[in-house]
Amino acid sequence: MGKELPTRREDYSLWYNELVKKADLAEHSDVRGCMVIKPYGFSIWEKMQQALDKMFKDTGHVNAYFPLFVPKSLFEAEEKNAEGFAKECAIVTHYRLKSDPQNPGKLMVDPDAKLEEELVVRPTSEAIIWSTYKKWIQSYRDLPLLINQWANVVRWEMRTRLFLRTAEFLWQEGHTAHSTSEEAVRETVQMLNVYADFAEKFMAMPVIKGVKSEGERFPGALDTYCIEALMQDGKALQAGTSHFLGQNFAKAFDVKFANKEGKLDYVWGTSWGVSTRLMGALIMAHSDDEGLVLPPKLAPIHVVIVPIFRTEEELTRITIEVDTLAETLRGKGCTVKFDNRDTQKPGFKFAEWELKGVPVRLAIGPRDLENGTVEVARRDTKEKQLMKLSDVAAEVPKLLDQIQENIYQRALNFRTEMISKVDTYEEFKRILDVKTGFILAHWDGTPETEAAIKEETKATIRCIPLDAVDEPGMCVYSGKPSSKRVLFARAY
RNA sequence: CGGGGCGUAGCGUAGCCCGGUAUCGCGCCUGGUUUGGGACCAGGAGGUCGUCAGUUCGAAUCUGGCCGCCCCGACCA
């Protein structure tokens, strides 16, 4: 099965695609550019959703749901936003099919069922939501409005990649409205921090927080904050964004409120989102040549128990021990899978669960029954140890914590090694050639320089890091003065 | 939309140049032996060769149209 998995070094893209399919996460659909998320992959996404949803609720947000379709007139109300998405929209123009007289048994679009106004399938929901907020907001007493929705969106991308860029994807989008600019900015930054915490604490993936340059900014936003992660092939991945919208959408949709002084003013907005792209990030941040490596906090199965037996009788004796052990582990919050299939051999099961990234594997055979032991194997380091059966229930939860910490440290060490400070354009290009990864370099702040560097090297400004220290220098490209370093990389 | 490649069993492929009804591996099914790191042996099932037309006694193979997919670019808040 997984034996044919190419190694990461040979061809990272190929390896990624194979892994996604072999680990039972997802596959390409017959529908153009779309993806089928398989049950195992979806169960990981559900764990992400649960953790994120709790973090949103803990910061005062509530969930709601808005329509899939956006009338074209609403969609175009915020001009920059509409322009930004115009090239990748799916549009509903008709509402009925009929039998095709030319092709018996086939259907055709009924030309008589043309819509008065086209409906855009949401590529993002600012328009439909802000048109609704207009009705909900009259006074400062209605603010802040802190709403999130879990939904699917459609962006007609020309080239797609499983999880990283698909024509339809699942995400969450938060849309908030505030009475002051300061409060909206605070919200934007707060949600950026929520995303960063989620990435680091749950996904065990270190991220760099920053602000996008003008060229990479969300259309319609005044500022786009983002978290940027580094994948094992040295390419960057934008893992989440949080936008300060200013009053742009409020003005476009005429959302005004009466403040305490009784004066009308436009509300201040934010929007923020993460998507199933995080699944791609998770895979590319930790996996190895044996397959997926899941952080325990997001693993749908924490512990898999593989019995080793020749006869029914042996399996029965093992099952008695396993039932007790599994029950105790479940009592400690572990998700336990007892793989008692008699259709596969132990070696096959070991390989299969490694491919699926299960953090801890226990093996129990006749030898262990005699000695009162269990073989405990951890996925991240592939270390195996014999443990007393009586100790397992206490040790496994600790081991899960260690694995969570270890894979974070490993990813952090990798990223630290892969950040290069460079001061000349030659060095800049050399790093991209031989090492890749993140590059911290001075930039003169102009879109022209940014575009020229992108054109020549394919590297883009991932962000202007929030923790960038003031440091006078010269732009690597133009030689003009610069006050701080920005983060460059080739990106997904 | 440009440049390149490909369409043959559930998956991956050989055959195509040089025309004679399709090769191999994985997987699947049956039986047996196995079972502490992806088992082995034997037998078996499974195909409108993307599609339409043309050339031919005969087309997976040659010719043309169409459809679909992949890679590179363009695109990707």
What would you note in describing this structure?
With 492 residues, the protein is of the alpha+beta class. The protein is built from 14 helices and 27 strands. It has an eleven-stranded mixed beta sheet with strand order 3-9-10-16-13-12-11-24-27-23-22, sandwiched between helices. It is globular, with a radius of gyration of 26 Å. 40% of the residues are buried. The protein binds one RNA strand of 77 nucleotides through residues 1-4, 80-81, 84-85, 87-88, 123-124, 155, 157-159, 165, 212, 216-221, 224, 241, 243, 306, 308-310, 342, 344-352, 354, 363, 365-368, 375, 492.
List the SSEs and their pairings.
Layout: H1 12-22, E1 26-28, E2 35-37, H2 39-58, E3 62-63, E4 69-71, H3 72-75, H4 79-86, E5 91-94, E6 97-99, E7 107-109, E8 114-121, H5 126-136, E9 145-154, E10 168-178, H6 181-202, E11 208-211, E12 223-230, E13 236-246, H7 248-252, E14 256-258, E15 264-266, E16 268-275, H8 277-286, E17 303-307, H9 312-331, E18 336-338, H10 346-355, E19 360-364, H11 366-371, E20 373-378, E21 384-388, H12 389-417, E22 419-421, H13 425-434, E23 438-442, H14 447-457, E24 460-465, E25 473-474, E26 481-482, E27 485-489
Helix pairs in contact: 2-6, 9-12
The chain binds one RNA strand of 77 nucleotides through α4, α10 and α11.
